[in-house]
Amino acid sequence: MTKNLITAVIFDLDGVIVFTDKYHYKSWKMLADRMGWDFDETLNHRLRGIPRLASLQVILDHNGIEASDSEKAEYAGMKNDFYRKMLQEELNRADMYSGVMDFLDALRARNIRLALCSSSKNARAVLRKLRLEKYFQAVVSGNDIEHAKPDPQIFLAGACKLEVEPEQCLVFEDAQAGIEAASAAGMNVVGVGDPRSAPGADKYITDYECIDIDDMLRTGNV
Ligand code: G6P
Ligand code: MG
Question: From 3.40.50.1000, 1.10.287.1080, 3.40.50.360, 3.40.1620.10, which CATH number describes the 8-18+96-219 domain?
Fold first, then answer.
């Protein structure tokens, strides 16, 4: 039997395992409406993979608004309160990406080590709500890192926790910043979703059912 190139698979969370996009959108929109700011789906798309305060800055810049650090913390806190409420009251397994549960089960059955590396400070709360914690031997969230994607820090920390080398890892990412981060970490990377919205990966998938898992583990590609 030939040895697999890939011994660990690393997932981003938002837009890769679960469509939290709509909850991020709705909670930014609630803040924007309350503040009288302009905010729409196109602007929301630019926030993919971007940490909370940096996302707020995109919205403030778009509206030509200057705010102090304490005001920014307050606005970001308001958005997060809306978001946390939606996670508790609305998020459920129907929000997950098509085929991802079977994909996780199949990887687990093959003893592949799994990590979750998400810029979101709510990553653990999302995993808990979806009852997915048991799948991941390592979780690195926005709380654990200093440098956000496209810096490779979050993925290198994930590989380190799993005790594997970067070249043994395959990353699934939907955001351009994440694809750049994974490449900078020296990892194989698969884009999730539309290549036009997040360029830079060698290969893209739009659902997990189409993946030949054994071939993927052998070659590091899909
Ligand atoms: C992910 C999402 C972004 C979000 C960021 C921070 O990267 O793609 O849209 O802004 O996490 O999320 P948080 O839950 O910490 O506000
Ligand atoms: Mg994402």
Answer: 3.40.50.1000
> Residue 17 CA: which ligand is closest?
2
82 touches 27 (CB < 8 A): yes
The contacts of residue 175 (CB under 8 Å, 6+ apart) are 12, 15, 48, 49, 50, 149, 198
pLDDT in tens, 74-124: 999 999 999 999 999 999 999 999 999 999 999 999 999 999 999 999 999
Rounded to whole angstroms, what are the CA distances from 146 to 14, 128, 130, 193?
A: 19, 24, 27, 27
State in words which class domain 21-90 has. Answer: mainly alpha
Of 12, 38, 69, 212, the catalytic one is 12
pTM above 0.85, yes or no: yes
93, 69, 94, 76: which is closest to 24 by C-alpha?
76
Q: How many CA atoms lie within 13 A of 143 on its CB side?
A: 6
Query: Residue 148 in contact with residue 177, Cβ under 8 Å?
Result: yes
Contact 120, 80 (CB under 8 A): no
- Ligand 1: lining residues by beta carbon, under 6 Å: 14-15, 24, 47-52, 55, 80, 118-122, 142
pLDDT digits (tens, 9 = 90+) for 121-175: 999 999 999 999 999 999 999 999 999 999 999 999 999 999 999 999 999 999 9
Answer yes or no: 215 catalytic.
no
**H-run or E-run covering 9:** strand 8-11
